[in-house]
Amino acid sequence: MSAHKITSEIFTENDKNSEELSNGSTVTQFIFKCPSYMMKPKSNIIAIKYDQDDDLDIDRNIENILYIEHNVSTELQMVGLQVWRGALLLADYILSNPDLFKGKIIMELGSGVGLTSIVASFLAKEIICTDINLGEILNLIKRNFIRNISYVKCKFHIEELNFLNLKWSQSLEEKINVTDIIIAADVIYDDVITDGFVTTLDKILKKKDSKIAYIALEKRYVFTVANMDTVAPMYEEFLRCIRRRNPNWNIEYVKIDFPRFFKYDRVKHMILMKIENNDK
Length: 280
Fold this sequence. Notes:
The chain has helices spanning 10-13, 85-96, 98-101, 115-120, 137-147, 170-178, 191-205, 233-245, and strands spanning 6-7, 18-20, 26-35, 58-70, 73-74, 105-109, 126-131, 155-160, 181-185, 212-218, 222-224, 229-231, 249-253, 270-277. α7 (191-205) packs across α8. By secondary structure, the chain is an alpha/beta fold. It is globular. The strands form 4 sheets. A 7-stranded mixed sheet has the order 8-7-6-9-10-14-13, sandwiched between helices. A 3-stranded antiparallel sheet has the order 2-3-4. Strands 1-5 form a two-stranded antiparallel sheet. It holds the Pfam family Methyltransf_16. This is Methyltransferase-like protein 22 isoform X1.
């Protein structure tokens, strides 16, 4: 009996230009609106512009394209090979807040296909992509960076990191030590992985240099007979893991009303957390 396959909503919400590859994966065009600071300036000065409502100005007439290789459907343990809404929400936040990310060393946990890391590379000093190397995902991330190299404005590194193994390589330890910002999207989908993610993030945030984490996820609701109610079990498990591990975190829920650059359904159940360690 074949395993149950899961498909991201991204590919039912909008028409996308996709091409199937001989290896069974797909390359999809992700169109995004170009923020004014990405436009080629007439001088060496890049001006960040705001509209009359003091919102970041987006040039509505200019669109760019990311070419992302991914799978359209996978088994649960391989969902990192797909693109999910949280990655696009976090990408939007990065593009909406260039001052927060410009010139920073950024590490993504559970990078998946690398879309959010590629967007962060527009602004960062250095990007470190991490994931467990199932399904040759690390090679896939590298291919996606190469496909979009014209946008990449910084050094990038790809390292294996398993949430269930806290014995890190020396190379990974060194990169974690110099990281300024941690980002992660759509990594909350399994009880064991969620607990490992909380433990991993807590260890990283306890490093002596102060770090900030931005975590994007979607509260996925299901009806359960046990509760006779509609609940978001994985989001609730994430909160339980935080309470159980008792990290000294300061958690701020970021409003998700910032500009939308990518085309997707920004549903009200999406969440963006800013997390810092209070031990500092």
